[in-house]
């Protein structure tokens, strides 16, 4: 197997397992440990995984956000409940912004019953789902495509957002610490901030696993949002902190 195919195979394996040791990868691909180390070094340099002691992982850390394919596999039922609750906040005729996240992207499946709508997004999955949909005016934000985030970012994306206005923005984040939201990637943070600036109402969508998780870059205070939507109750100390700060927390509850 050539290096390119083997590295894609490593990623595919990690998308299923989350982590793997060098020994496991060496045996699976029938190559030396040194070859696997070179593969992991290259994939880490491309931002597609992180090396850990004895192996590699695509799971999130304070400085590394998972590939969208791995994130899509996490908390699926909860994210679906959040998407349904978010869609209930949309009215026909509105303009909404949907960010690159798998959580916010779930809204797309529920928009056909609310049309007509204008949808602004940098999320390639949402663009693909809504392109050509009757009653949906789709504004796809240009920019540089990120395979890791399955969306568009950069100067072109940000300039487009500065020229647009929307009724509602739905965004997610990878970390909620106290009453502030954080993310590992500063370019993603910049785009999300501009989405908030472009919208009259703003909602943060986050599965309960985001509460207390670390991330490097400050994104926004939770007081910037009209509400935080989650699918399960966060731990009691976090609920208390949100209540004392006057943050509206909406828990969708299990079906």
Describe this entry's structure for a reader.
The longest helix is centred in the first third of the chain and has 15 residues, at 3-17. A hairpin with a 4-residue loop joins strand 7 (144-146) and strand 8. With 255 residues, the chain is α/β, with parallel strands linked by helices. The radius of gyration is 19 Å and the shape is globular. The strands form 4 sheets. A 7-stranded parallel β-sheet has the order 6-5-4-9-12-14-15, with helices on both faces. A 3-stranded antiparallel β-sheet has the order 1-3-2. The chain folds into 2 domains: 3-59, Arc Repressor Mutant, subunit A (Orthogonal Bundle); 74-251, Rossmann fold. The chain has 10 helices and 15 strands. The termini are far apart. Helices cover 36% and strands 24% of the residues.
Radius of gyration: 19 Å
- The domain tally reads 2
Beta strand count:
15
For the largest beta-sheet, the strand count, sense and barrel status come to: 7 strands, parallel
Distance between the termini: 46 Å
Number of helices: 10
Helix content: 25-40%
Low-confidence stretches: none
Oligomer: single chain
- Please tell me what the overall shape is: globular
The CATH class of the largest domain is: Alpha Beta
Average pLDDT metric? 92
Proper CATH architecture of the largest domain: 3-Layer(aba) Sandwich
